[in-house]
Input
Amino acid sequence: MQNKIPVFDIKIGDLEKKYIKDCLDSSSIGQGSYVEDFEKQFSQFVNCKFGVTTTSGTTALHLALKTLDIGDGDEVLLSSSTNMACAFSIAHCNAKPVPIDIHKNTWQMNTDLIEKKITNKTKAIMVVHLFGQAVDMDPVIELAKKYNLKILEDCAESHGVEYKGKKVGSIGDVGAFSFYPNKTITCGEGGMITTNSEKLAEKARDLKNLCYGKNNKFMHTGIGFQFRMSNVSAAMGLGQLSQINEIFEKKKKIDERYKKNLAGIKGLNIPEISKHTNKYIMWVFNLYLDDKFGITRDELAIKLKELNIETREAFVPVNMQKVLQKKYDLKEKDCPNANYIMDNGFYIPCGNTITEDEIDYVSEKIIEIGKK
Ligand SMILES: Cc1ncc(COP(=O)(O)O)c(C=O)c1O
Output
């Protein structure tokens, strides 16, 4: 029996171990210099002046929204197809998430649909650069100017990705990153916001650390959070950052091999890369089926599981979440493309330690099952 081929795994390098050991040996396990170094080096990598670490991608989004003053009754537009960290962080600000449908071929937010969803309560657009691609930012920037809206870029799945030569996370007012273990680089758990505004960076730094007072520490200047990343996590992140180009190379090889193996199979579709993503960095390898494949996505997943091949189904969109539908009057029919991808999309094993033989085995089995 084939050993289990998981959807993701990570490779931890010697530098991560060295830096973490350094934290342990020096007892600098809470706050310490790795936090500052990681913020500096990662924000430089994104071409931003400032980086503020957090405990996760979810808390990075929450902190970013609070930093942008999103609050009671505000509306925030976002891609319908995404991780619910996006919608929930908006809900936790007492604001309303307003889902925008995606393009069926690229799975990215369809920016042509944004303007008709703008109301006098709209305060921000949360752009989610999904699966290593970039959303088309020019129309977003234009609308933000026209209606005086803030732009928050969620780059959890798009470390290093470029839109027309600009790194995502440096284009809007604030970027938010996740370093969960399935992300391009990881801290174990962690996140960061990036910005070119000193004012926003200072505000975020304050908010993430309980808004401690400047003169009397315990006379707080605001109602803050405790979203501090530990020195140990930052040490891990810094070590991972040093091997980011090797990780990109590995991902490129996985992407190319799957694309070569799986091209032209009837009913099996590979999402297209949008033309404005001038640096694509595969996050996970996605596929979606249509009727010509012969069996459904769920039937295929069961058959692959029997062969010890793990798959993960696509996101259930914002407009389909029962916990959000009632509260925000969202409808199933709001986002038909996101719904189509929910039913037919999935990703296949593509972790950093997957071998060429495993990629070929997974591809072969998908093709074999489809032919039956
Ligand atoms: C698009 C997107 N945003 C936000 C998050 C949340 O990140 P975290 O799991 O680090 O909280 C994820 C996580 O998977 C994500 O994919």
User: Anything to note?
Assistant: The pocket of pyridoxal-5'-phosphate is lined by residues 56-58, 82-83, 85-86, 128, 154, 156-157, 178, 180, 191 (CB under 6 Å). The first strand starts at residue 50 and ends at 54. The domain at 14-242 is CATH 3.40.640.10 (Aspartate Aminotransferase; domain 2).
